[in-house]
Amino acid sequence: MQTALAPYLALLAAYLVGSIPFAMISSKVFGLADPRTYGSGNPGATNVLRSGNKKAALMTLIGDALKGTLAVVVARHMEFSDTIIALVALAVFIGHLYPVFLKFKGGKGVATAAGVLLALDPALGLAVAGTWLLVAYVSRYSSLAALVAAAAAPLIAVLMHGATNQTIIVGILGMALIGKHWQNIQRLMAGQESKIGSKKKS
C-alpha cells in the first residue's frame, strides 16, 4: 500500500535519477576531457561526439535515454495515477536539465525526453524520434532536428490522445527543449551552428 509520501518520494527520486550526468561518466570511462570544456559546452551525447569518440557518445545517449525510461516504468510499476506518472516524467526531465550534481547546469534534454516519451507511449516516442532522425539526416544539424521534434511532439500527442495530462506534460517538455536550444537557434540563424560529427575546436 502506498503512503501519502510515496508520490513526493517518487518525484524526488525521479529528479535525482535525471541528474545523473552520463556525459561526464562516459567521458571519465573513456579518458576524455570534460565535455563542458569544448564544443558547445553541453554535457550531452552530441557534444561528446565532438570528441571523436563514438562509443562515449553512444554510452551518453543510451544512459540519458534510459534514465527517462526507467523513471516512468518504475512509476507505472508502483501503480501511481496517470497524473503522478506524468509528473514523474517531468521530474526526471528537469533533473537532466538542472542536475544537482552539476550545479544545476545540465544538458539540453533531447535523449532523456526521448526515453520519457517512449515509456509514456511507444507510438508517440517512435513518431517523435522518427521526426528527429529525418530532420537530422537531411540537415545534419542535431539542434534543428531537436527543435522540430520538440515542436511536433505535443501536436502528435494531441492528434493521438487529445487533451490529457500526458499531452500537457509533452507540451511542457517541448517548450523546455526549445528554450534550452535558444543559443542554438541564434547560431542556426547566423549560420554558425556545428553539424553532427564535427570535431571539437582546439
Keywords:
0% strand, mainly alpha
Largest sheet: none
Helix content: 55-70%
| Structural category | mainly alpha
Domains counted in the coordinates: how many? 1
Mean pLDDT figure: 92
Shape: globular
Count of beta strands: 0
Order of helices and strands: HHHHHHHHHH
How much of the sequence lies in strands comes to under 5%
How far from one another are the termini?
56 Å
List the helices and strands and how they pair.
Layout: H1 6-18, H2 22-29, H3 45-49, H4 54-77, H5 82-97, H6 110-120, H7 122-139, H8 142-161, H9 165-180, H10 182-190
Helix pairs in contact: 1-4, 1-5, 2-4, 4-5, 4-6, 5-6, 5-9, 6-7, 6-9, 7-8, 8-9
Walkthrough of the structure:
With 202 residues, the chain is mainly alpha-helical. The chain has one domain (6-190). The chain is 69% helix and 0% strand. It has ten helices and no strands. The chain has helices at residues 6-18, 22-29, 45-49, 54-77, 82-97, 110-120, 122-139, 142-161, 165-180, 182-190. Helix 1 packs parallel to helix 5 and helix 6 packs antiparallel against helix 7. The longest helix has 24 residues, at 54-77. The protein is globular. 47% of the residues are buried. The mean pLDDT is 92.
